[in-house]
């Protein structure tokens, strides 16, 4: 009887654990089991293969439906259109710069060098690299259905953006289609949630196989990955964001940096851009002087499409995995990674595991082995804390610049010469 009660209590404790804790436990247990079993731990690899296949299953429909829903949900008034355009251009521009920083730091510090892992997937070899012109031309699908079937991510993204814009432009006639896509997107979010429940077991199986084959030394470079991501986050916020505010906005960046303290603390602990939204709106209005209209539109939009921190993390992790498996990337591959991560940020789903889904998308685009996901999944929570913080810092920077350009920035509040007073 006691044994039954103990089992029930153990099951209850496991079910109450947060997903990231389960994944971390799965990784640590996998390393222990793999170290003890040695090469024979390969019998556990099918657990990981099942998870990887489920991730692959999600990529195309999740990106396609999320992008369309994200674009069609934007308001289409003149002012909102103008403000939205400014915000989107800034969000996508800073996202491209963020992933460039991640790629640059990973190139300098080479966190995956020396691991000498071997990809087992037959489709991970990178073919002859196309030129930049070919890469840009290949973004337009000749056959959208063929692109969806083949899983050509860049072509899918471009088609989804075009379809989403078209639906937004035709007005009421688009309502039935938009409702259909919204329903399908919600279904994909739920399916993603279900698949991510497999993550602890998939990570356990893959890490057991990896540590059994390569030894526990595979964990040491992960400290380097964490250090590189956090260094990139500091550079992006303190140097890049501050520089843009000073040069483009002609404003004092110190005021901006001081206003980040509370929202950044909330983002770092909750790892949720949406959950931090009340704090970012409050700080933007009360400490930066951003108007209610701009803050209420630009910040929720940023929580949906601004993924600077996620893009930076993807740049570091993609190169880490390439280095770990001894795969050399061509210049066009770097450009493809930047384009994919930047465009895909518009359709990133706000669900647990979205960061890993986006990373798998980037890896697939340039032919890197998805087995590498298991290596970084165990430290994903630590990386998520940094990337979410960068995301909300970017949201606040864009709201500040848009408010300044629209004449809706209270400079007295921004300069600290006047206290914020709520107006109806």
Structure description:
The chain has one domain (31-414): Sodium:dicarboxylate symporter (Proton glutamate symport protein), CATH 1.10.3860.10. Helices cover 73% and strands 0% of the residues. It is built from 20 helices and no strands. By secondary structure, it is mostly helical. Residues 121-130 have low confidence and may be disordered.
Q: In a nutshell, what does this entry contain?
A:
The protein is mainly alpha-helical and 424 residues long.
Question: How do the helices and strands line up, and which of them pair or pack?
Answer:
Layout: H1 2-16, H2 19-37, H3 45-72, H4 78-109, H5 132-137, H6 144-150, H7 153-169, H8 175-196, H9 199-214, H10 220-247, H11 253-259, H12 261-270, H13 277-286, H14 292-305, H15 308-324, H16 331-344, H17 354-365, H18 372-377, H19 380-405, H20 411-414
Helix pairs in contact: 2-9, 3-7, 3-8, 3-9, 3-17, 4-10, 4-14, 4-15, 4-16, 4-19, 7-16, 10-11, 10-15, 10-19, 12-19, 13-14, 13-19, 14-19, 15-16, 15-17, 15-19, 16-17
Q: Domains counted in the coordinates: how many?
A: 1
Terminal-residue CA separation: 63 Å
Order of helices and strands: HHHHHHHHHHHHHHHHHHHH
Number of strands: 0
Describe the main β-sheet briefly.
none
Q: What is the helix fraction of residues, given as a range? A: over 70%
What is the CATH level 1 assignment?
Mainly Alpha
Q: What's the overall geometry?
A: globular
Fourth-level CATH superfamily: Sodium:dicarboxylate symporter
């Amino acid at each position: 009887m006691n044994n039954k009660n103990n089992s029930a209590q153990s099951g209850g404790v496991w079910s109450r654990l947060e997903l990231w804790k389960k994944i971390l436990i799965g990784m640590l247990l996998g390393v222990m089991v793999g170290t003890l079993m040695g090469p024979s731990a390969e019998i556990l690899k099918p657990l990981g293969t099942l998870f990887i296949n489920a991730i692959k299953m999600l990529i195309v429909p999740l990106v396609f439906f999320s992008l369309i829903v994200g674009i069609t949900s934007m308001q289409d008034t003149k002012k909102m259109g103008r403000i939205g355009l400014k915000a989107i251009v800034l969000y996508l521009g800073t996202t491209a710069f963020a992933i460039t920083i991640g790629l640059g730091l990973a190139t300098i510090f080479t966190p995956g060098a020396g691991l000498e892992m071997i990809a087992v997937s037959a489709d991970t070899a990178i073919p002859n690299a196309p030129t930049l012109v070919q890469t840009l031309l290949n973004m337009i699908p000749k056959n959208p259905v063929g692109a969806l079937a083949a899983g050509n991510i860049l072509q899918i993204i471009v088609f989804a953006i075009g379809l989403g814009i078209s639906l937004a432009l035709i007005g009421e006639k688009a309502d039935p289609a938009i409702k259909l896509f919204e329903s399908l997107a919600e279904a994909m979010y739920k399916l993603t949630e279900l698949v991510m429940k497999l993550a602890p077991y998939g990570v356990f199986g893959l890490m057991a196989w990896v540590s059994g084959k390569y030894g526990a030394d595979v964990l040491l470079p992960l400290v380097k990955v964490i250090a590189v991501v956090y260094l990139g986050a500091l550079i992006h916020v303190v140097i890049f964001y501050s520089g843009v505010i000073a040069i483009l906005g002609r404003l004092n960046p110190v005021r901006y940096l001081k206003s980040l303290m509370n929202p950044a603390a909330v983002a770092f602990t909750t790892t949720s851009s949406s959950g931090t939204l009340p704090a970012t709106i409050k700080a933007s209005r009360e400490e930066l002087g951003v108007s209610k209209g701009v803050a209420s539109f630009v910040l929720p939009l940023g929580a949906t499409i601004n993924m600077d921190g996620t893009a930076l993390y993807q740049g570091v992790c993609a190169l880490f995995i390439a280095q770990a498996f001894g795969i050399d990337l061509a210049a066009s591959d770097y450009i493809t990674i930047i384009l994919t991560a930047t465009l895909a940020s518009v359709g990133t789903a706000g669900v647990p595991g979205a960061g890993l889904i986006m990373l798998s998308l980037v890896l697939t685009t340039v032919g890197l082995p998805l087995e590498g996901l298991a290596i970084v999944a165990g430290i994903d929570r630590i990386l998520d804390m940094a990337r979410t913080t960068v995301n909300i810092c970017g949201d606040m920077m864009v709201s500040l610049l848009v408010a300044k350009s629209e004449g809706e920035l209270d400079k007295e509040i921004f300069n600290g010469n006047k206290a914020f007073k709520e107006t109806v």
